[in-house]
Every structure is written in structure tokens, then in C-alpha cells.
UniProtKB/TrEMBL annotation:
A GO MF label: manganese ion binding
Keyword vocabulary terms for this entry: Apoplast, Disulfide bond, Manganese, Metal-binding, Secreted, Signal
Disulfide bonds: C70-C85
Family in the record: Belongs to the germin family.
Subunit-structure text: Oligomer (believed to be a pentamer but probably hexamer).
Compartment(s) of residence: Secreted, Extracellular space, Apoplast
Residues engaged in binding oxalate: N146, H151, E156
The name this protein goes by in its record: Germin-like protein
Alphabetized SUPFAM superfamilies for the sequence: RmlC-like cupins (SSF51182)
Gene Ontology annotations for the cellular component aspect, listed alphabetically: apoplast
Xref: PANTHER family: GERMIN-LIKE PROTEIN SUBFAMILY 3 MEMBER 3
Pfam family, one: Cupin_1
Length: 267
């Protein structure tokens, strides 16, 4: 009888064992599925947040307008990133107009660089405020240049109207330690783009013919940093100890460069 009871209990355990095991497996399977779903949900959330952040940074140039226009009120005491809007009832057609005379040659004789940049930005045309665009006419004397410079807030697209230009830009520091130079000789009607923030230049290689170009820039106020002016003509000057080490030259060379008259060819 005891043997039967034991055998019966054993059979019961054997019969119950698989059912219990299946229940445990089902529990772990269900738990793992929940964990996987939670992880997938978390990963999706993080990916979405990352994409949103990248998209925000990608659009973090001039802000998009939230109304038809926001004519700059340059006399307002309010200080904002850009300019506050003029009251819409005070806006008139001349806020969107400028008699810039861009069809006429500009004087390049007063510039040591042999160029003249006539910039039309929000400081000259109030209607450009919040529209994220500006333009410039650039005149080059024979052998003149628009020296190496950057636009910290804008990409530039340049079209040659007259003459020939040798243009180029340099990349930021690369992983291999190099800064790659991209150059091209442009003829009349050619177009070239300079990415935002990168050092670039234009040079007229002709000995006897001027050149003219029109540039469009993706900011109402693109800014310009002329490299030589900023480095050697800053006020107060950068220490010659710093520059001598940076350029690996004698301090006398730095002092001579800092003593030059570094002019602005932008008007």
C-alpha cells in the first residue's frame, strides 16, 4: 500500500512536473517579451529624441518667420537675437526696397586686397529681418582678391557675372590631421558654393581685366571674419608669444605683421 502510494505520488509528480515546468517557461517567456518590448520602446524614444535634437541643431541658423514679415525696428530699445518687429501698421513698401546701385562697378582702388564687397544685409534692408537671406556684389581688380575669410552664420553661393575667378575653401580639421583644400577656376555664369563657417577665398587671376560676382548668403546677417585681419589686426593685439608659437615664426615677423594696416574690404 505504501509502495502504491509512493508510486502514485511519483506519477502525480511526474504528471504535474511538466505542467509546472510549462507554467514557469511561460512565465519567463512572458517576462522576457515584456522586457524586450520595454527596451524597444525605450530605444525608440531615445532615437526619436536624438533625431529631434539633430533636427533642431540642423535648423539652428536664422529662425523661421512666424508671420508674413517682421521688418526690423533698428531703433527699438529691446535687445533680442536679431531685431524686434516694427509695428505692422507702420510698415511700408520702402522697408522692402533699397536703391543699392548694384548694376554699377564699385571702387576697388582703395583696398589693398584689390576688391570691394557691397553687402546687402538686414542693417541696410530692414525687410530682411527673420527671412534668413542676404546678398553681396563683389568687385575684383586685376589680380585682386577677396582674402581668406569665413561667414560664421551663413552658407554662400557665388555666381560670376564678369571675368574669371579662382576660388576655394578649406575643410575643418579632419581625423587624419589634414585640412583639405577644394579649388576651382570659374568663368562667367559659373556657380560655386562655400559651406557655412569654412575658410574660403576668391582671386582674380587676370592681369588686365576686372571681375564681378554676386553672392547669396543664408542669413540676414552672415558676418565675416577675415583671417589675417582677425589674427594680426585685433584690438587689443594677440600676444606675439602666442602667434609666434602658433605660426612657428620669429616674434619679429609677428610684430611686423601686426604693424601693418589691416583694412576691411566690406562696405
Amino acid at each position: 500500500m505504501e509502495e502504491g502510494m509512493v508510486r502514485g505520488c511519483g506519477e502525480g509528480l511526474q504528471q504535474g512536473g511538466p505542467r509546472y515546468t510549462r507554467s514557469i517557461d511561460h512565465y519567463f517567456y512572458t517576462s522576457k517579451s515584456s522586457i524586450n518590448l520595454n527596451m524597444a520602446s525605450s530605444n525608440f524614444f531615445l532615437l526619436t529624441a536624438f533625431i529631434a535634437l539633430v533636427a533642431t541643431q540642423a535648423m539652428a541658423s536664422d529662425p523661421s518667420p512666424l508671420q508674413d514679415f517682421c521688418v526690423a525696428d533698428r531703433n527699438s530699445p529691446v535687445r533680442v537675437n536679431g531685431f524686434p518687429c516694427k509695428d505692422a501698421k507702420d510698415v511700408n513698401v520702402d522697408d522692402f526696397f533699397l536703391a543699392a546701385n548694384l548694376d554699377k562697378p564699385m571702387d576697388t582702388t582703395k583696398s589693398k586686397a584689390g576688391s570691394n564687397v557691397t553687402l546687402i544685409n538686414v542693417m541696410k534692408l530692414a525687410g530682411l529681418n527673420t527671412l534668413g537671406i542676404s546678398m553681396a556684389r563683389i568687385d575684383y581688380a586685376p589680380k585682386g582678391q577677396n582674402p581668406p575669410h569665413t561667414h560664421p552664420r551663413a552658407t554662400e553661393i557665388l555666381t560670376v557675372l564678369e571675368g574669371i575667378l579662382y576660388v576655394g575653401f578649406v575643410t575643418s580639421n579632419q581625423a587624419n590631421g589634414e585640412n583639405k583644400l577644394f579649388t576651382k577656376t570659374l568663368n562667367k555664369g559659373d556657380v560655386f558654393v562655400f559651406p557655412q563657417g569654412l575658410i574660403h577665398f576668391q582671386f582674380n587671376p587676370s592681369y588686365d581685366k576686372p571681375a564681378v560676382a554676386i553672392a547669396a548668403l543664408s542669413s540676414q546677417n552672415p558676418g565675416a571674419i577675415t583671417i589675417a585681419n582677425a589674427v594680426f589686426g585685433s584690438n587689443p593685439p594677440i600676444s606675439d608669444d602666442v602667434l609666434a608659437k602658433a605660426f612657428q615664426v620669429d616674434k619679429k615677423a609677428v610684430d611686423w605683421l601686426q604693424a601693418q594696416f589691416w583694412e576691411n574690404n566690406h562696405n
